[in-house]
Specification:
about 325 residues; alpha/beta; 6-stranded mixed sheet; about 35% helix; about 20% strand; globular
Length: about 325
């Protein structure tokens, strides 16, 4: 008779699914995504409305694979691009297994947040919706408790988390809950993959972030970056050629800067971050081109991962 080992542990089932991060512009969605994934996969600046496409970052947590969808901020759109971005945000929520609404602790229940809550009642379709009150270090504890109570009276959230996406406070509890709440099933991506955007698009987003950090006023919203050519070289490095499209003649000189200083600084910062992300040397070449009507071209929207038709008024 064969002895049967008594210390065999039952296999823990794997879980996997999509978590949509939604909220107003600048609520901290991109910062939270990067924190959860452990790498910079989404553009983060002090300017609002910098995330344009739905960016998926992939995090492993025990037996669970959590696929975060960083959506553009939800706001009242004015232009075709704005409308496409808002449609992408709600599309990300519609495709998700769990929805997390981020709000800023110091701003509270704004008119914009109220509008998102009104839409969530129709769009959440019975899926778990959690509230994450971000930037908790900016307000006192009693203010947080009052805000949490008010928000939960306004919408039946499954759970409420007090977090600082920038510092990491409370994000572990949020990740634990997400990993436990996702449906059982096989992982959707390889275990070592951290994003599902093509590397060409990630590289373009990194360059756009560096431009956004250096430029002022409306200029960052009037430009886009595309990766034109990508060449793998024999020495293991990559040559990347990108074009920066601007919509006004005067913007070209501003992007280049006096003596080309601005574009040189952007190229240097972007090259270093792309190389760090890829883990190998990168040769980055940028050029600036005037394309006055790029905001009305379907091809530009496809490059950003947006649906041009969603921008129809």
């Amino acid at each position: 008779m064969t002895d049967i080992p008594t210390d065999t542990q039952p296999e823990i089932p794997t879980r996997a699914g999509f978590v949509a991060l939604i909220g107003e512009p600048n609520a901290g969605k991109s910062t939270l995504l990067n924190r959860m994934v452990g790498a910079r996969v989404s553009i983060v600046t002090h300017k609002v409305q910098t995330t344009r496409a739905r960016i998926r970052g992939i995090a492993m947590h025990g037996p669970a694979q959590v696929v975060f969808v960083d959506t553009p901020g939800i706001f009242r759109p004015r232009r075709r691009l704005d409308r496409s971005m808002v449609a992408a945000a709600w599309g990300g929520a519609a495709d998700a297994d769990i929805i997390v609404l981020l709000i800023e602790a110091h701003r509270g229940l704004t008119d914009g947040v109220q509008e998102i809550l009104d839409n969530l009642r129709e769009r959440s379709s019975g899926r778990p919706v959690a509230l994450a009150i971000n930037k908790i270090d900016r307000v006192k504890a009693e203010t947080l408790l009052a805000l949490s109570q008010r928000m939960n009276e306004a919408f039946p959230f499954e759970r409420t988390f007090m977090i600082s996406a920038e510092r990491g406070h409370g994000t572990g509890d949020l990740m634990d809950w997400l990993a436990q709440t996702l449906p059982e099933g096989p992982w959707l991506y390889p275990e070592d993959q951290i994003a599902d955007l093509p590397m060409r698009m990630i590289a373009a987003e990194i360059t756009r972030e560096k431009l956004t950090l250096r430029l002022h006023e409306e200029i960052p919203y009037q430009l886009t970056v595309e990766t034109e050519h990508w060449q793998e070289r024999d020495d293991g490095s990559a040559r990347i050629d990108q074009v920066i499209y601007v919509s006004r003649p005067g913007h070209k000189g501003i992007v280049l800067g006096k003596g080309g200083e601005t574009i040189k600084g952007v190229s240097r910062a972007a090259r270093e971050e792309i190389a760090e992300f890829m883990g190998r040397p990168v040769h980055l070449f940028l050029r600036v081109a005037l394309r006055e009507n790029w905001l009305d071209e379907a091809e530009r929207f496809r490059e950003m991962g947006l649906d041009f038709r969603d921008g129809d008024g």
